[in-house]
Amino acid sequence: MKNPCWKEKDRMRCLPYFQIVGVCRSGVADLYNRMLMHPKIVGNTGPHSRETDFWSWKRYGLSFFDIRLIKYGDFYTLSDFSNFFERIQRRSKEENKYDLITGHADSMDFWQAFDWRKIPQNNPKSTAPKYTTPDLLKHINPNIKIILMIRDPVERLYSQYIHDKRFIIRELEPDRNIPDDLYVRRVSEQKVDPETFDEYVKSSIDLYTKCTREYGTRGCLYGMRIFYNKRLPLVAGFYNEFLKNWLNVFKKEQFLIINFEDYIKDTGGVMAKVFAFLDVDSVDESTITKMSCSKKIHAPIFDSKVLPMLDSTKSLLRRFYEKSQVGLQNLLKKYKIEMSIKPILVNGKAIDCSKHYTSNEREL
Question: Is the CB of residue 296 less than 8 Å from the CB of residue 26?
C-alpha cells in the first residue's frame, strides 16, 4: 500500500498519500472531485470525501471558521486525523487491491496558520512563527506528495469575496440548506458589488502596510490582523512567501504546482499530469473525457448578478501583488519547477467539451 499505514492494536491506521494544500478559490475542490473518478483513488471520510480541516483548524481546537464566526471546541489528535482515512483500508480488503491511494484537500493549509502560537516549539511572545504547517506535516508524513493550485491573486481575491458571501447568508438563515436561487436573490442585500470590494481592498492594503511596519512581513502574513479587519484574505495571494516556506521543508520533487488558468484551458492535460505525479495508472479516453467535461463545482452562482471588479481596484491589486509575483517566478526558476501541461488527445483530437456545459460553468 502506498499510503503510510501502521497496525495499532486490532486495527490498521493510515495517513494520506497526497494532499492538495491550496489555494482557496483556485479549483482545489473541483480538481479533487475529478481525481476521485480514477478507480485507484479513494475519498476520505471528511466533508465531501475530501476535507479534514486538521492542520489549520482542528489540531488547534478550532471547530468552525466562518466569515463572521469562529468557534473553538475539542483539539483533534493524530488518531482523530487518521480516522479520516479508514475508507481505503476497507476498500483494499474488500476488493483485494493494495495499490489504491487516498488523500485530502484542505485549501487553507498552504497559507493559514493563525494559531501558530499553540505550537509548543514556537515562542508565543514572538511576532512571527518559526515553525508552521509544513514543519508539522514533515514530522509525521515526510514523504507525502503535495499538490498546489495557484491562481492570478487579483482574480482569486475577488472570487473569494463573492464566494464568502454565501457564508454570511447561511449565518443569518436558521435553515442552512438554502436553495441556490435564494442565494442569488439575497446577494444584493449583502452588497456583493465592486464598490464595496474596492473599499475592502483599500482598507485592507492600508492595514497591511501599517502592520508590516510594526511586525514585519512574516508577522503579518501569519497573523489575524488583516483578516479580522474585513474578512478579506489578502495575504493568501502572497504565493512566493508561503511557497518558499514549504520548499524549505520538503523536496521539490514532492510538489506538483498547477496554474488555475492552465486547469481551465486543459483540464484533461492537468489530470494526466496529476496521475503521473501520483504514480497511478493513466485512464482510458472515455474516462479522461468525462473528467474533462464534467460540470465544474463551486462555480459562483452569483456571476449573473455581480459586476466585474473595478479597473481601478484591479490596478491597485496588481501593484500590491507585483513584487510577490515576480518573486514567485524567480522561485520557480531557482528550483526548476516545471509547470507546462501536455495536451491530451482523444481520437487524435483535443478534447471538445462544448457539448457538455455552458460557458458560465467554466468559471470558478
Answer: no
